[in-house]
Amino acid sequence: MRHAVVVAPPRFVVPAQGSVFAAPDPVGPMSAALTRGGHRLVLVSTTPELETDFDRALAGVGSADELLVYVAAATTTGTDAVALRTGGDTATSLALRVLSDTVLVREPSAVLFVIEACHDGDPDDALLAAEHVDAIVRALDARARGYGVLLGVRPESRSAPDDWPFTRRILAALDDPEARDDRGAAPVSMVYERLRAGQGDGGQ
Question: What is this structure's pTM?
Answer without folding.
Answer: 0.81
